[in-house]
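G., the chain you wanted modeled:
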Amino acid sequence: MDLIVCSTLKRARQTAAVVNRVLKCPVIYREELIERGFGEWEGKKIAPIREEVYYSSGNLYNYSCTESYKGIETPADLCKRVWGLVEELKEYYPGRNLLLVTHGGTMRSINAFFEGLGEDGMLPPIGAKNCQLMQYQA
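Predicted structure as tokens:
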């Protein structure tokens, strides 16, 4: 591993520190990798949120949904933020092995960058568990 690129949020920083005990490589922290902003839902348990019409409509992860609901960062805004960083990393670190330490919503966006959006405009689910590695070729 040549470089760890990590979200500035506490849990990601802690994870990067643990991983880097073995890797012993440089770490940079980037705001672009923070979790998706969930507005009024920030910090709430997922179960009550699933009852909301917006959540169940599929708009929560639909790239074409460009209108914010209750202050939630739109999928398009999330992708713009994260995809911009991925493009920058590809440009500045070509051929290097990078480890991105981030969060679930952000990973959906990274997955969409490399795998594409669904035909219905949905960000693909990542299907990864906490601390699971996902590998992409740039």
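The first helix runs from residue 10 to 23.

Shout if anything looks off.
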